[in-house]
Amino acid sequence: MPTTSGRSRGRQGAHSGAQGAVGDHLRKVIAAMAAATVVIVFVLVMTKAGRDIDAATQHFMLFYAGVFALIGLTGSVMVGLVATDRIVMRPGHRVMAQAVHRAVSFGALAFLAIHIVTEILAQRVHVIDAFIPFLSPFRTFYIGLGAIASDLILLIVITSILRKRFTAHGKAWRWRAIHYSAYAAFVLGVLHGLLALAQKHPVKALESAAQTALHHGTWRLRDLRILLEQAAPSPQMDFLETHPLIRNLDTYRDCVPDCFTTATINQT
Q1: pTM, whole model, 2 decimals?
Q2: CA pseudo-torsion sign 12, 14, 18, 20
């Protein structure tokens, strides 16, 4: 009969073999991703179509990466609240919700990084403005709010990765206190987005667009843009009787008397 030590050694050997297989598979996946990244970068840099795609992607991300980051942060907060439920959610469901919460949080962090990088490349902000608030010489307030929100999100992600160091020493309350700052980051992110929208579009323009959408019953942004373009008044020249260019005929006759004199002689 096999002894207990022999069975334990067999389990350890099987476990180490499984870990070795997983490690080999992970290395292959990383190598394949690195090769794909090199190919994509080469195509984007060396071909005209790739450069066009790169420019279009940067232009798209410049305007929408911040929106996606805010959507991801909203989803992360909502899923995080669901994951804390202990009345309706079963343990297995809570574990799944926590996994979704982490995935959405990392997605929001990725779009936040893209948003910051594209804003810096477009020379809208400086590098230091992304981390230290209220130093930007223009649009100081709402850029500062965005900097505070991004710093809080970065702090939350770093402390979540190092969560075991907090719980191992019986100081999990510190991690929870830091994690609760996600609500503040969410509020600041929403304010940052609303103020940025107000800077780009005046309040009257937003109210007019909302009234147009309600009047025509459309909720798609593309349809609303078409309606606004059709409703835009065409520029017209308002030549009224009181316009300074419209004067009495005698004024022009005094300026060019020879012309009028010649015309009178010909008529006679």
Answers
A1: 0.64
A2: positive
